[in-house]
Write a structure and sequence with these properties.
It is a multi-pass membrane protein. With about 525 residues, the chain is α+β, with helices and mostly antiparallel strands. The chain is built from twelve helices and 15 strands. A hairpin with a 2-residue loop joins strand 13 and strand 14.
């Protein structure tokens, strides 16, 4: 059991957890003279943390390639640099003048690294007392074999020689044969190597490509979402083109959101496919996809806000609120764009926890403000429709308000679950299901969009009912439903009907302004 009362142990595990959370998500991890950090009696540098699936059975027979079924961590051009003052303390003839160790371990085996003597301070590096108790070698990390595989954790040694300023690690390929969350750290126990820096790169590969295990399911998810948006667009655009003469402004906005959603899901797929093939995230594609996503989120929220205010259905314009709506939209786009770029373009560990918090807070505050504004406006619109006895529009807005309420409740519940999920899994051991956290928000947004498409579907009477005031229940049931659904054929602006009463034939005629009935008796 871990001694949680030990300050050094708490510091060590806090550093490991932070390294897991903010480590690079790119499967090719590049180090550009990254400095080592002092942790306890050692100096550490996080090399990465990724979920890797076990190599498939076909990997032993398959030819090397992207989808060869092999899973590995490969070290390339890893070079350690020490200060000139430290190098000058040694002669050129000395053989080993400084040890650096790379160790790879599963998150479940994290307690197999380090130890403590007589219940005292826990250390990563072996001390004289621990050498007697643990049987470790002084000046090296303390490693205990994993219960599942005695060869793990894997430790790779690199030595400085003579008075050289640098030491180069031999190229290594570590095969992964068990599914798990793997972590790489570089450590030195030599206090004289304070100020050590490292350059080079490591490649992390899953059986089906370089995409990290926790992100791999999202590539297929975006394919399904793109297909869903495609089907929605086919249904929507068929109605849109059929009744294009009677389209409302709100329906134009819905069309734009559908198009942006389809583009966003497609771009996400291509971004992940490129990531999976090359092991790096293309800055250009990633920037484009997060920008399209930020535009879509902004327009979606403004659309819901405008609908809640009654724009396009209850009143033709927003009046003096237009400038305020545009201002909140521009501010939200900027906050969302900055947050998405920081989280997706490049690597996650490019920003610290505090820096990310500074970007998350404005986005969360604006979302909360928009939700409050939306429900306030929606309440006023419902009261207005109820006072005017606009039964059809009132029914639509009640359904819309119920859908919004369910969406907000689901969002709050999911946020609480996300907080619980991350709080109870600091080392990402449940990485195989982490993709659901991201996917849920796209599914929820799509579901709400489908509801709006149903409630405001293009019809032949959209314009006729958009800005008119209903009085009581004067409208025929068929006409009332035409606000959201078009008739199967024909134009209802001019309808002739015949009815026979005994030997009498009555012809009813309707035009756009009023209904006139004339009876002709024969």
């Amino acid at each position: 059991m871990m001694d949680l009362a030990n300050p050094s142990l708490i510091l060590l595990h806090a550093y490991l957890a932070a390294a897991f959370v903010f480590s690079s998500e790119a499967s090719i991890h590049v180090y550009r003279k990254d400095p080592f950090q002092e942790v306890g009696n050692s100096y550490l540098l996080s090399g990465g943390s990724e979920g890797i699936a076990a190599a498939s059975p076909r990997s032993n027979k398959a030819r090397p390639g992207l989808r060869d079924g092999r899973a590995f961590i490969r070290f390339e051009n890893i070079t350690f640099w020490r200060s000139k003052e430290e190098a000058d303390q040694h002669s050129a003839k000395e053989r080993n003048t400084g040890l650096i160790q790379a160790f790879i371990f599963e998150a479940v085996d994290r307690d197999n690294i380090g130890g403590s003597a007589y219940g005292g301070q826990r250390s990563i590096c072996c001390t004289p007392d621990l050498a007697k108790l643990e049987g470790c070698k002084q000046g090296e990390i303390i490693r205990r074999p994993s219960s599942s595989n005695p060869k793990w954790p894997v430790v790779i040694n690199t030595q400085f020689t003579g008075n050289k300023l640098f030491a180069r690690m031999d190229p290594k390929v570590i095969r992964i044969r068990k599914t798990g969350m793997y972590n790489l750290f570089f450590v030195t126990c030599d206090p004289n190597l304070r100020g050590l820096v490292m350059s080079g790169k490591t490649s992390w590969k899953n059986p089906d490509g370089y995409l990290p295990g926790r992100m791999a399911p999202l590539m297929n998810f975006y394919v399904y979402m793109a297909v869903a948006y495609m089907l929605l667009s086919v249904v929507w655009f068929s109605q849109y083109m059929r009744f294009w003469r009677d389209i409302l402004q709100i329906q134009n906005c819905i069309t734009l959101v559908i198009a942006l959603g389809l583009i966003e899901m497609t771009l996400w797929y291509f971004e992940y496919a490129h990531f999976n093939y090359t092991g790096t995230r293309p800055v250009g594609i990633t920037t484009w996809v997060v920008t399209v996503g930020a535009v879509k989120k902004t327009i979606s929220r403004l659309l819901i806000l405008c609908v809640s205010m009654g724009y396009g259905v209850v009143r033709p314009t927003l009046g003096g609120l237009t400038s305020k709506v545009l201002l909140i939209g521009g501010t939200y786009f900027l906050a969302s764009e900055l947050l998405d770029i920081a989280e997706n373009v490049g690597t996650i560990n490019d920003i610290s926890g505090k820096a990310r918090l500074l970007l998350v807070l404005p986005d969360a505050f604006l979302d909360a403000f928009l939700i409050l504004w939306i429900f306030t406006s929606l309440s006023k619109t419902l009261e207005q429709l109820q006072s005017k006895r606009s039964s059809v529009k009132l029914d639509i807005y009640r359904k819309f308000s119920n859908a919004l309420l369910i969406t907000v409740i689901a969002s709050v519940a999911w946020i609480l679950y996300e907080v619980y999920f991350k709080a109870t899994d600091p080392f990402n051991e449940r990485w195989q299901s982490a993709w659901i956290i991201i996917a849920f928000w796209d599914i929820l947004a799509f579901a709400l969009l489908c509801v709006m498409c149903y409630l405001w579907a293009p019809s032949q009477s959209s314009q006729r009912y958009a800005y008119s005031d209903e009085v009581g229940e004067d409208f025929d049931a068929e006409e009332a439903q035409s606000l959201t659904r078009g008739a199967a054929e024909g134009d209802v602006s001019l309808v002739k009907q015949e009815r026979k009463v005994g030997d009498t034939v009555v012809i009813d005629a309707e035009d756009d302004d009023e209904t006139n009935a004339e009876g002709k008796r024969e």
